[in-house]
# Entry
Amino acid sequence: MKIKIKACASVKDLCGFSEREFDLPERTTAGDAVRRVAQECGDITAGLDSLLLAVNEEYCRGDRVLAENDVLALFPPVSGG
Amino acid sequence: MKTIRLQNDPIECAAALAATGTVEDGAVLSFTGTPRRDSAKRPVEHLFYEAYEGMALKEMDKIADEALAAWPITDCLIIHRTGRVDPGQASILIVVSARHRDEGFAALRFIIDTVKKTVPIWKKEVYIDGSEWVSDRV
# Structure
């Protein structure tokens, strides 16, 4: 199934892309998808306390099961304000 | 009334303040966040804000709804800058109005504290000789 992975801020710099489509097996979780990105791009959490995840613009955990055309966002702890 | 916005242009703070509140309100309170010149180990030339825009607007909207539900405030405005922000400029403006100041102060405090925890916006400090993402610890 096709899903879109979006990377923000320092995670975008580490991934080397801001948005990319991935073809992943059915029932893939958000955590599986992060491991797949790390296989290709190396350590995408270097220097971070944690990596935050969101599916279709809502926060989620690593065990969230993805569906076709989901947008999974990977980003560092927020620092706005 | 609820106003939620991300914008590249400077925030017109005085105009936003004047437009917030009703004749029933006894208090219009605001919080303005501004980049510090010396927030890191070296002088900051300017900040660069990146937002995951769709999600950031949704999270800001949720925070405003929670504040409007939790305190008797009438208006709630949250504007955050994106792109380059120079020291001294407003990076965020929050304005609330209420019949009485106590609930306004409480709502204002809740809004800025929650924005800093949940809204997907990140700042990069830009120095004369480089730059660095600031990652607030969770």
Remarks:
- The mean pLDDT of chain B is 94.
- The interface with chain A takes residues 33, 49-52, 54-56, 58, 80, 91-92, 112, 115-124, 133-138 of chain B (CB under 8 Å).
